Predict the structure of 3-deoxy-D-manno-octulosonic acid transferase.
Amino acid sequence: VASQLFSQTAATAYFPLDFRWVVGRILSRVRPRVVVLFETEIWPNFINSAISLGIPVVVVNGRISEASFRYYRLLPWIFRNIFARISRIGMQSGADAERAVALGAKPDAVFICGNMKFDAVSEPPSAERIEAIRRELLLPRNASLIVGGSTHQGEEKALVNAYKRLLDKKPDTRLLIAPRHPERFDEVEVLIRSQGFDVLRRSRCSSKLKPPASNTVILLDTIGELAQVYALSTISFVGGSLANVGGHNIIEPAAVAKAIVFGPHMHHFKDIKEIFLSEQAAIMVSSEDELYERLRELLHNPERIRAIGDAALRVVERNRGATERYFAFLKDFL
């Protein structure tokens, strides 16, 4: 991806294995003005070699999870020296900054700059584009759409089971599932059909087809459309969270003011999750039954759907700007 995005402006290469003789040779040949590491890319030999060659090392969008913090503290003779030698460390949150200092970073070298993920969302699709997607997916105008985005094994079945129960009370509801991994598209179609539903695959949508009935689940089997589909949703369930995967990015549906639901396993997005929950900008569920209950409650309360979506958008807007803050402190090294 990087080679495609930056083919005209930068050279790209795989990061070297963290052996001293390997990284020393590469750094001596490349001689960068500064090394910028993202999030938790703490490679002891690489960092020590860079500093030994007089190359400053900077961390941006830094994040230290509780698990990583415990691991680093088990090896203080390695990591205290590493953190103390990093020139500047920009962290996503106050908790991350405190952990960096506890691990040996100099307090005056640590800054709280926020999370660049809030800046990474694309521009929301226009009203015309959203309407075009609705027509392409053959959705009735009055349908409430539940989108299950970036789902993993077990989550599709939970969504389909919840949908089956919802149809008794809200027959105008429709369900769209977007599996995280393309190689699971066929598997998910088989699972949906085994639960008694028909499947309409996005790749086969055609104006010649009839609009899907309530016994049809839409399967998003294309790449790059999920963010736009979130904009069409009434409620967005973000996967990797009922399944113990660690969660996926909830900022995409938040950026288009959607009511967001996710499961309890959001450890890869712990700080973001806590921000949204504290602002009543998302709902966390712990089980398939609770997923059904929360979806049922929301579908019967459009005002609450709107309030959660509005709160989610406010969270995104309030946390934008981290990229500019990181760039501002990088300018000292350029």
Summary: The two ends are 25 Å apart (CA to CA). The chain has a mean pLDDT of 93. The domain at 2-113 is CATH 3.40.50.11720 (Rossmann fold). Residues 302-319 form the longest helix (18 residues).
